[in-house]
Amino acid sequence: MKEEIIIAGFGGQGVLSMGKILAYGGIMQDQEVTWMPSYGPEMRGGTCNVSVILSDNKISSPILSKFDTAIILNQQSMDKFENQVKPGGLLIYDPNGITRHPERKDITICKIAAVDEAAKIGNAKAYNMIILGAYLKKKPVVSMENVLKGLKKSLPPRHHNLIPMNEEAIKAGMDAVQ
After folding, report:
1. pLDDT, position 138
2. What gap in Å lies between CA 157 and CA 87, rounded to an integer?
3. What CA–CA distance (Å, rounded) separates 36 from 53?
4. How far apart are alpha carbons 114 and 178 in whole angstroms?
């Protein structure tokens, strides 16, 4: 198994932390992992992305030009990464703020209204975990148990009380997949 992922959106949407949680989850699952963030100096509000590779075998390079999965959270990222999804790949996106929806016919497209789902559970900060849940429903490359271990590893101990809320958000994302 080898999964090459790009997660892209605005700084502050939890893009980098979503990638980090996936990466830690893969490590907990004894996978080979790379996590490579890219963001501008403005961070919050500027565009950012992270590529994550999860593999059962050694990874020769963390540099990717094509992806098995793209998780897209803003229009700039849609414009940049839609055509970099491999044929037969997966594109997950939140339609909030997207003006041009994906049009490719050679990939699976999954729309998740994560902003609406976060409002339903009463926590806007759960947005990225809802997206993560949608991805894990479509491609269960990391078990829920290991995602939660990755979440615990990526959160500072003072925020470990938020893990149950994050688990609830991941499950809500899994349930909301279209």
Report:
1. 97
2. 41
3. 9
4. 11
CA 175 to chain centre: 16
Nearest to 3 by CA among 60, 65, 62, 53: 53
* Residues 60-99: tens digit of each pLDDT: 988 999 999 999 999 999 999 999 999 999 999 999 889 9
Terminal CA-to-CA distance of the chain, rounded, Å?
25
Long-range contacts from 141-146, C-beta under 8 angstroms, 24+ separation: 141/1, 141/3, 141/22, 141/26, 141/54, 142/22, 142/25, 142/26, 142/28, 142/29, 142/31, 142/54, 143/25, 143/29, 144/170, 146/25, 146/26, 146/28, 146/29
CATH architecture of 2-176: 3-Layer(aba) Sandwich (3.40)
Confidence (pLDDT) at 42 = 52
Task: Evaluate whether 25 touches 149 at the Cβ level (below 8 Å).
Answer: yes
pTM over 0.85: yes
Residues 66, 82: Cα–Cα separation, whole Å:
10
Q: Kindly state the tokens that stand for 102.
A: 């994906």
